[in-house]
Amino acid sequence: NLLTATMKFTLALGAILATSAAAFAPAAVAPRAVTAVNSFSSEIFDVRTVDMAGTTEQIVKGGRDLFPLLPKAFEGIKEVGVIGWGSQAPAQAQNLRDSLDEAGCDIKVRIGLREGSSSFEEAREVGFSEDADTLGEMFDIIGKSDLVMLLISDAAQAALYKEVFAAMKPGATLGLSHGFLLGYLESIGESFPEDMDVIAVCPKGMGPSVRRLYEQGKEVNGAGINASFAVHQDTSGKATELALGWGVALGSPFMFETTLTSEYCSDIYGERGILLGAVHGIVESLYRRYQRQGMSAEKAFIESCESITGNIVKIISTQGIKAVYDGLNDDDKKIFEEAYSASYMPAKEILQEIYDEVSSGNEIRTVIMHGKRIEKFPVGKIDGTDTWSVGEKVRESRDEENIPLNPFTAGVYVATMMAQIDVLLEAGHPYSEVVNESVIEAVDSLCPYMHYRGVAFMVDNCSFTAKTGSRKWAPRFDYILDQLAYTAVDNGKPVNQDIISAFKEHKVHEAVTACCELRPTVDISVGTASSTKEIVIE
After folding, report:
1. Cβ distance 135 to 159 under 8 Å?
2. DSSP for residue 456
3. Using CB atoms within 10 A of its CB, is residue 104 exposed (0-12), middle (13-18) or buried (19+)?
4. Predicted structure pTM score
5. Is 429 known to be catalytic?
6. What is the reported pLDDT for 490?
7. Which residues of the chain are under the pLDDT cut of 50?
8. Coil, helix or strand for 121?
9. Which of 94, 327, 344, 485 is the most exposed place for a label (fewest CB within 10 A)?
10. C-alpha distances in angstroms, 526 versus 96, 215, 342, 389, 443?
11. 108-113/79-83 β-pairing
12. β-pair partners for 136
């Protein structure tokens, strides 16, 4: 029938056209259950138990002092193939190469790219080359590698996974930095080959921040981006140690365990929420609101976007979410409460819908379908609109020391962040994952770039999957806040004291405090020289 045919078509990508619609049905029926993993063991690294809001979780704290342990963690690995050159690959390849060299490991790190890729030159610029046998065609590199770090785009993984699996040599480990491929395979009734280890190390930040913090933290025992890790298949019995070694080599301040399912549910969800899509929608809606109230365009941008990226997130990064509220005077606290009370449920409505779409597999299908259309409908830029054009002018004349903390903006932003946290907690995600996906990644990785280059720059230059989701969901946040939250405030709807009390007494504040103590040892500087290069769409 027509519906079945349509389902087949929309999920198709190349050879995947033959997949039956029946394989998709289980994923579309209901969200997948998330099983949180909170404990693991290691014979190489010190596993610490930390208190996260009354729950205990286990982590490994990173640092350059652990580099001497890398030879043991990478035992049996002689060749590492980093496949791709998008957001994560340049940073991870360079960090891994530098760390393994410093540790005295006799391990070759190679870059594998598709034939004719323009990224060959960029890889050469940072020290990989054909002459040194550290740069080559992707399937040739895959075939040589003991650890294949598959860092090509999600859509490309879905299109090429069969060829990748076939090219891997017996006993090789598949390494991922995102759980997307598992979600895709499950949606079509397939799985990873049973005879290989499958692990993931997933930095909680964009690739350039992974490299910048690694470089900037060399003098203070290392600093990078926190990472989750997952061991999906362990046929060798060594998968956990290798995953932890990979995370240490990237410079992760701490690593916490997850599953590939939990990772892609929280990650894809998070970037559509407060990490990208929601902050985009919040800024657009507040920018218009403040102008309606009589502000100039420049003032409206300062009180909306600049207040978030230049003030609010800096407080959250070092002091926690509740510190934003606690630092306000009594009058401003009332404004914050009005905005928070009115915004929390509308934001949560959209966030719950996003989570259901991600965990059911629907959002993954959206990404695949978008990839299928990309040649006919290339992704354009969003930075030409009035909001972001004004923002560029504001940044040129910015007074960094006098960026205001607008209490209404703070109430809307914090309410959305807390709603995102609650959706994840209600779905069973552990606090370490919730805080990193909803707070740490926002304030320590993405917002510094937004402040330096603009929210539009981040949306235009993030990964294909994140870009697809941000553009899809940002308007939903924009509209629902404008239609439900701001009208409630304007119509004098009383503050819901239960919502405010839940915010003040929320256990996540304890977990954020614990994570802040484990944050990078330096604040990222996005304007200094770096061997990483932010991808810019012309």
Report:
1. no
2. H
3. exposed
4. 0.87
5. no
6. 98
7. 1-30, 536-538
8. helix
9. 327
10. 21, 12, 35, 21, 13
11. parallel
12. 112
